[in-house]
Amino acid sequence: MLESYFTILSDGESEIEIKKSRFICSLKRVYSEEEAKEFINQKKKEHWKANHNCSAFVIGEKSEIQRSSDDGEPSGTAGVPMLEVLKKQELINVVAVVTRYFGGTKLGAGGLIRAYSHSVSHALAEIGLVEGKLQQEIQLTISYPNVGKIQNFMEINPYTLQDTIYGEQVNITCLVDETKTEQFMAEVVELLNGQVSFEKGECSYHEIPITKKEQIDDI
Question: What is the DSSP string of 58-107?
């Protein structure tokens, strides 16, 4: 399993206009080539009056499935630039369709490359990205006097305090990157002088919205 991955925050679309041509970028999470093709065909039916519905998608933990289509635009001016934006952001399991309604002004090869790549990067910036991290759920059982210590510790360290239940003792559920599980437990034992017991729960992916992954811009 991957330690982490990047993908889009949600499905959605964004529109820009360049020299009177409309470029509508639609993004969707997909987990198979069949899903990606189904979405592309759906957009082609929805925008059947459009001049072009160009597409690109990246699927798989290692981005093993990569496809692009110029859909009638000059070869290499649409699908590949779109795919490059997805790859530059290291995204997986996402398909992009850019629908173009021609506005009467030809853009030239360079202009088309910039227009299609910008359409995708603009949509990514509008919709947002997430980082999915493989995290271990760990429940701490501690005494009441140690609650403040743990809360302060969680605030200043890269761990997530998910839940706190107060009973005879206090049960605190934390989310820790899977690779840092042993480090986390050792730090807590030292912090509380061993006055803690641990119980591991599920190990699963938790997605965290990110405002920027370096810089979402044109290729």
Answer: EESTT--EEEEE-TTSSTTSSHHHHHHHHHHTTB-SEEEEEEEE--S---
Q: How far is CA 5 from CA 40, 73, 87, 163, 208, in A?
A: 24, 32, 12, 25, 11
pLDDT tens digit sequence for 135-180: 999 999 999 999 999 999 999 999 999 999 999 999 999 999 999 9
Angle at the Cα of 95 from the Cα atoms of 91 and 99, rounded to 5 degrees: 130
Of the pLDDT bands very low, low, confident and very high (cuts 50, 70, 90), residue 213 is low
| Count of helix runs (H) and strand runs (E) in the chain | 5, 10
First to last CA, the chain: 29
CB 41 within 8 A of CB 10: no
> For residues 60 and 93, what is the distance between their CA atoms, to the nearest angstrom?
6
Residue 217: count of CB within 10 angstroms of its CB:
13
Across 198-216, average pLDDT: 80
* Element (DSSP H or E) covering residue 34: helix 33-46
Beta-bridge partners for 101: 22
